[in-house]
Specification:
The protein is of the alpha+beta class. About 30% of the residues lie in helices and about 20% in strands. It is built from 4 helices and 10 strands; from the N terminus they run H-E-E-E-E-E-H-H-E-E-E-E-E-H. The strands form 2 sheets. Strands 1-2-3-4-5 form a 5-stranded antiparallel β-sheet. It is globular.
Length: about 240
């Protein structure tokens, strides 16, 4: 899968605002609904965006597809434009707000603040999650001995990740430290010393979206990071 961008290889100007709006929806609508029913918060990528797993006796789910909120079930679904958290919560029939006591929300619960979600930016982020999911699944299949976890889109960080062999791997839509979407490798013991060109972040290594053209590039980055960690562990007395 390739990543869609706009213009001459450039990302949409409203990417940051779109990411912030979708992050609010993930925390205060989807995670809120899922946690109220199941006590869980783990979301997943889906075509056009992200969603909850099915929950409740009727197999209900909530999803974001582009600029819309989808409320679905085993037999039917309905959708509405994402405008505010209040409107989204009323449409879904849920109480908004990140699950209390589970984690500290990263976004504000401003029920009537307009959600700025640009279609082109939402498509870039959806494609990025899809690429990340494909890459993480393929990479995990290569390293069964590392006991990789399932890929989860965590609402508090809004990134898609796995843990395998005491290393975190994932795809982030961007954040305050790295503005553009990026991949990461984060060893639990911190980055090995001596390779600053690769270990270019305090927690490990990142590769921005403009350096990743397809899932194969992402797998190669994850594989390289793992190999460097293992080489350091082997060389350490």
């Amino acid at each position: 899968m390739a990543v869609t961008t706009s213009g001459a290889g450039r990302l949409p100007a409203r990417l940051a605002a779109t990411r912030a709006g979708l992050h609010q929806v993930a925390e205060h609508i989807l995670a809120a609904a899922l946690h109220a029913e199941t006590g869980e918060i783990a979301l997943m990528p889906s075509p056009g965006g992200f969603r909850t797993p099915p929950f409740g006796e009727d197999g209900r789910f909530l999803a974001v597809e582009g600029t819309e909120l989808v409320v679905g079930g085993t037999e039917s679904s309905r959708r509405t434009a994402l405008t505010t958290l209040r409107a989204a919560a009323e449409f879904a029939g849920i109480r908004p707000g990140a699950p209390a006591g589970v984690y500290r929300p990263a976004t504000s619960l401003d029920l009537d603040e307009p959600l700025t979600i640009d279609p082109a930016a939402a498509r870039v982020l959806a494609d990025w999650y899809q690429l990340g999911e494909q890459a993480l699944r393929g990479f995990a299949a290569e390293i069964p001995g590392d006991q990789p976890t399932a890929a989860v889109l965590w609402p508090e960080h809004f990134d898609l990740g796995i843990t395998a062999g005491a290393i975190n791997y994932g795809a982030s839509p961007g954040d305050a430290e790295v503005a553009d979407p990026y991949l990461y490798v984060g060893p639990h013991d911190g980055p090995p010393p001596g390779e600053p060109a690769f270990w270019n972040a305090p927690f490990g290594a990142v590769r921005a979206i403009d350096q990743i053209g397809a899932a194969a590039d992402a797998v190669a980055f994850f594989r390289d990071g793992r190999a460097r960690v293992l080489a350091h562990v082997t060389a350490t007395p």
